[in-house]
Specification:
It contains 9 helices and 3 strands. By secondary structure, the protein is mainly α. The chain has 2 domains: 5-69, Winged helix-like DNA-binding domain superfamily/Winged helix DNA-binding domain (Arc Repressor Mutant, subunit A, Orthogonal Bundle); 74-190. The chain has a 3-stranded antiparallel beta sheet. β2 (59-62) and β3 form a beta hairpin. α1 crosses α3 (43-55) and α5 (108-119) runs antiparallel to α6 (125-148).
Length: 200
């Protein structure tokens, strides 16, 4: 029996929020029964929400084993950075001018999303949708980039304040190339951060 769409949507949005906030450790099994009890819902809308998140590749669905918080391989992470870089450069080609005029904050992962999103603001809906999905899938990696790559905050600030389209393109290529080259170290740091504290 299908769940009430409003309940499924509420659960989907809450699970998505928790995933992006780091509420689930990488590789953690997402127990349908426990989530349903926590959200005061039946298992059906929880399964529907988890299936939707799996379709968006924000979690992994493993036959006969259940749902798990996504953890990329080194190659998958490098490819995802490559894809994200290609999307923003494609959006930049159709952009009228380079200056973004974006103020950055102390939250590095949000800064990256906001700066790249501003570049893509004039792009078509399909490109923006693909970029938003890539941002979601990269969020856990971006949370550890400043701990792994020196100067990460400065890099995104430079992109945000680039004065010409050519300068912006150069900075974007350098930014993504560095992350593609360091995908293994970023993944390793994300895995270490996801380990449960001693005693759990």
């Amino acid at each position: 029996m299908a769940a009430d769409p409003a309940i499924s949507e509420r659960i989907y949005l809450e699970l998505r929020r928790r995933l992006l906030a780091g509420g689930f450790r990488l590789r953690e099994r997402l127990d349908v029964g426990r989530i349903a009890a926590d959200m005061q819902a039946s298992a059906t809308p929880v399964r529907e929400a988890l299936t939707r998140l799996a379709t968006e590749r924000l979690i992994a669905a493993k036959p006969a084993r259940g749902f798990f918080a996504m953890l990329w391989s080194e190659r998958e992470l490098a490819t995802l950075y490559e894809w994200r870089g290609a999307l923003v450069r494609l959006a930049l080609e159709g952009r009228a001018a380079a200056p973004l005029g974006i103020e950055t904050t102390d939250d590095y992962a949000d800064n990256v999303r906001n700066v790249l999103g501003a570049i893509e603001g004039e792009a078509n809906r399909e490109l923006r949708r693909a970029a938003a999905n890539a941002d979601d899938r990269l969020h856990a990696a971006r949370r550890v980039e400043p701990e792994t790559l020196a100067g990460s905050m400065e890099e995104i600030s430079m992109i945000a304040t680039a004065s010409t389209k050519r300068e912006l393109l150069t900075l974007l290529k350098r930014y993504h190339a560095k992350r593609i080259a360091c995908a293994g170290a970023i993944r390793e740091r994300a895995v270490l951060r996801a380990l449960p504290p001693n005693g759990e």
